[in-house]
Design goal:
By secondary structure, this protein is an alpha/beta fold. The protein has helices at 17-25, 45-50, 67-76, 96-106, 165-171, 184-195, 233-236, 240-259, 263-270, 280-286, 290-305, and strands at 4-10, 32-39, 57-62, 82-85, 91-92, 112-122, 125-128, 140-142, 161-164, 198-209. The longest helix is centred in the C-terminal third of the chain and has 20 residues, at 240-259.
Length: 315
């Protein structure tokens, strides 16, 4: 039995999957299997995977059903006790699986684990994730409050998370009612954090490629079904950081819907936000017309080209 099952959902990623697999097979910790699930790709993605002869690869193909069903499909076929997720356009440093294995060894009682990550905005600029916990260099430990530490960048990100298979299945996996990357990962990490503390390493060992091809988050907003923060409101009454975390996600969803000219959904999200849970920059942006938001997004992209990350989540 392998130590890790690496789950890779694959849909039209012919430009990215080779580099992702190369980073996987350079791992210093080698006790893993790779479950690639071709989710109805119409390009050369599957052909590229087949060009790799590594016997640890298990390739499945099925009709297109979306990333949540695809990851769940793979999880049910995993042989290892620990599931690790890797999207077909992301990158692992050679020590990523070793980073997670050390976490598991140090905290065997934990149900889920995550490593710190960086964000590649473009070919010229990559930035570290932002969280108060990142002030502790090369730290490994149990996070006391996931939500308090996830208000700018979430501690959990899909390509840097590991879950015990039993825990993943007990949670019911990814919610298949959430579509096209509209928060299916946020929803799972939220349920996981409410069920069990996260074991975390502040050593950056994974990279989120925001400039990759065919990203599902680029699907038009009106075609996406978003996670519903409302179902966690009752629990949030007992945890102010959870309430703030939910409102930060409502803020994001509200702006996305305003940009999509879906004003009724914008109002539905924004009216449920406690004004104390968003900063001045965010309140300013919520009140701007769409054309101003479009200009500010363009400005943000230009600044990233010159190596400066702008985020409204940081006061």
């Amino acid at each position: 039995m392998p130590f890790f099952s690496v789950i890779i959902p694959l849909y039209n990623k012919e430009r990215d999957i080779e580099q992702t697999l190369v980073s996987l097979f350079k791992q210093s910790f080698t006790d893993f299997e790779v479950i690639v699930v071709n989710d109805g790709s119409t390009d050369r993605s599957e052909e590229i995977v087949k060009s790799f002869s590594d016997p640890r690869i298990r390739l499945f193909s099925k009709e297109n059903e979306g990333v949540s069903k695809t990851r769940n499909f793979a999880a049910h076929r995993a042989r290892a006790n620990h599931l690790v997720f890797l999207d077909a356009d992301d990158y692992w440093y050679p020590f990523h699986l070793k980073n997670l294995q050390l976490l598991i060894t140090k905290f065997p009682e934990a149900a889920w684990y995550a490593a710190a990550y960086e964000k590649r905005h473009n070919k010229n600029f990559t930035s570290s994730m932002i969280s108060p916990i990142m002030e502790n260099k090369n730290w490994m430990g149990i996070v006391e409050d996931y939500f308090e530490n996830s208000l700018i960048d979430a501690l959990a990100w899909t390509s840097a998370v590991c879950m015990k298979k039993s825990f993943f299945l007990d949670l019911g996996g990814f919610d298949t009612g959430i579509t096209h990357g509209a928060g299916e990962d946020i929803d799972l990490w939220l349920r996981a954090a409410l069920a069990s503390p996260l074991a975390f390493s502040t050593r950056i060992s994974a990279r989120h490629n925001l400039d990759s091809s065919n990203r599902i988050s680029h699907t038009p907003t009106k075609k996406r079904i978003f996670m519903n923060p409302d179902k966690y409101e009752k629990t949030a009454a007992k945890n102010p950081f959870l309430k703030k975390y939910l409102d930060q996600n409502r803020y994001s969803f509200a702006l996305q819907h305003k940009l999509a000219r879906d004003i009724s959904s914008f109002k539905e999200y924004s009216e449920k936000i406690n004004p104390e849970n968003v900063n001045k920059k965010q309140r300013f942006l919520l009140n701007q017309p769409r054309w101003v938001l479009v200009l500010l997004i363009r400005f943000k992209t230009v600044m990233e080209f010159f190596g400066k990350r702008l985020t409204a989540y940081k006061a």
